Amino acid sequence: MTHAAHSLANEALWEKDRDHAVHPWTNFGPFEEQGSLIFTRGEGCYLWDADGRRYFDAIGGMWCTNIGLGRREMADAIAEQAMRLGYSNFFVDTGNDAAALLAARLAELTPGDLNRVHFTTGGSTAVDTAVRLVSYYHHVRGNPDKTEIVSREASYHGSTYLTISVGKRAGDRIEEFRYKEDGIHHLSSPNLYRRPAGTSEEAFCDMLVAEFEDLIARRGADRIGGFIAEPIQASGGIVIPPKGYLKRMWEVCQRHDILFIADEVVTAFGRLGHWFASKDEFDVVPDMITSAKGLTSGYVPLGALIFSDRMWNTMAEGGHRWFSTGFTYSGHPVACRAGLKNIEIMEREGLLGRAAKVGAYFEDRLATLADLPLVGNVRGRKLMACVESVANRETKEPLPDEVGESKRISDACEAMGLMVRPMGHLNVMSPPLVITEEEVDFVVETLGKAIVQVTDQLVREGVRIG
User: How far apart are CA 242 and CA 248, in angstroms?
Assistant: First the structure.
């Protein structure tokens, strides 16, 4: 992000942040020089920095500010719960009313028999638990070697040691860290834009499914225990799979007794116009769903692993085992109260329907950017979308990484009061569900201006485009 000159008051705050706060995915050189853009207020889809400048947050925080910021009734619910019961032990055989009510509510909203809810601290810990549950479930059934996990390239599933290893997004794997390699396999990303030249969507889907079947044949179905997939790969580039892909992958799992984990940390709670996208959008009832982000619209950290009664009954059979996993803040009453209020607001204001309607308008408006020379692909569904930049639209060749065009585009947007997220050669957007059509127009028009501005800069610098 670019940062304009700070006021004296903001300068002190900026320095404190730079000198002491360690941010996720810090890029050490630029951070030491530029520091952070410090926000101090938010309302609806807007953020204000420490100097009072306003920005439209088309990123939605981190895919999460679904109901918008500054909700008085949410703040009141959180405060009331904190006063009445700010914390209680959730381990073994003690609980609290807010967690019980939210668990029951989630069971009502999820498809099939996904009626068991394990609360976590966020998406990473929900996925971490889901992956661990694969071996637990199969071990109970007499298959202790059925522990291996299948994921995809360009996936992101969290940042614990286990989940960063299960995911495999460009830029996440660095040589300074170590990752778990054994027992984790990565299939091709179902990226239609990057499919082999001359391959139809149907043929590409066939290839992806065959790749999964081949892996199972090589490793053995007695070793592969789980398959994890984001219905739409989010941080991996808004990858919308080929038609029928997820259903066919689920059918492969069914044939080989492999648990299907839907990572809906991003897609759940309205991003695609549904509570959960697996069934409503892709006709799949998974064995487990992971969620977070939109569960509380970012007001309080909370994640949830939701899994089937069938799994629960198998693990609980005999009544002699321990489910020895959890967190100090599992079932936190304040977080769960925020989740309940979040769902109440979404229902009362019809935000799922609104996301579907305004999301369709967002798709149509973004498509108007497809003819710009720097734009190779515009893709997305409802309120998650991206624009991919290329050096050559015909060959789809990306620009050299050092050009940094997506960062330049986001910087140009920021200077015009718009926040978009640069990732690789993409500019990604996931605005709050309360975005209006007029605000969609602002986002698209501003992003278009930024792309044109950066294109002109690159041409003047001698970068070949087109």
Answer: 11
pLDDT-flagged residues of the chain (< 70): 1-6, 8-9
Smallest CA-to-CA distance from 238 within 381, 140, 338, 110 is with: 381
- Cα 386 to Cα 35, 192, 261: the distances in Å are 26, 14, 25
Tokens 């219905």 sit at which residue? 231
What token pair was written down for 259? 């648990």
CA dihedral of residues 6, 12, 16, 17 (deg, nearest 10) = -20
Rg of the Cα atoms in the chain: 22
What are the backbone angles phi and psi of residue 225, rounded to the nearest 5°? -105, -25
User: Would you state the structure tokens that stand for residue 287, as one six-digit string?
Assistant: 């064995």
Dist. CA 77–CA 259, nearest whole Å? 37
C-alpha 195/C-alpha 7 separation (Å) is 49
DSSP state of 224: E
Tokens representing 89 are: 């032990």
Alpha carbons 65 and 297: distance in angstroms, whole number: 4
Are 134 and 259 spatial neighbours (Cβ–Cβ below 8 Å)? yes
Q: Three-state SS string across 95-144, please?
A: CCHHHHHHHHHHHHHCCCCEEEEEEECCHHHHHHHHHHHHHHHHHHCCCC
Sequence-ordered strand ranges (E) for 159-218: 184-187
d(CA 49, CA 52): 5
Query: What is the separation, in whole angstroms, between the first and last Cα of the chain?
Result: 27
Question: Of 362, 228, 371, which Cα lies nearest the Cα of 305?
Answer: 228
- Give the pair of three-digit tokens for residue 143: 């298959």
Residues 6+ apart with CB under 8 A from 381: 232, 240, 272, 281, 359, 363
Residues 197-227 pLDDT 10s: 999 999 999 999 999 999 999 999 999 999 9
**What's the chain's length in residues?**
466
> Distance between CA 455 and CA 156 in Å, rounded?
30
37 in Cβ contact with 59 (< 8 Å) = no
Place of tokens 């799979």: 241
| 455, 374 Cβ separation under 8 angstroms | yes
> Given the DSSP bridges, would you call strands 384-389 and 426-429 parallel, antiparallel or unpaired?
antiparallel
What percentage of the chain reaches a pLDDT higher than 90? 96
- In the three-class reduction of DSSP (H, G, I as helix; E, B as strand; rest coil), residue 428 is classed as strand
pLDDT in tens, 56-85: 999 999 999 999 999 999 999 999 999 999
Distance separating alpha carbons of residues 326 and 464, to the nearest angstrom: 53
Does residue 438 sit in helix, strand or coil?
helix
CA angle 174/180/183 to nearest 5° reads 140
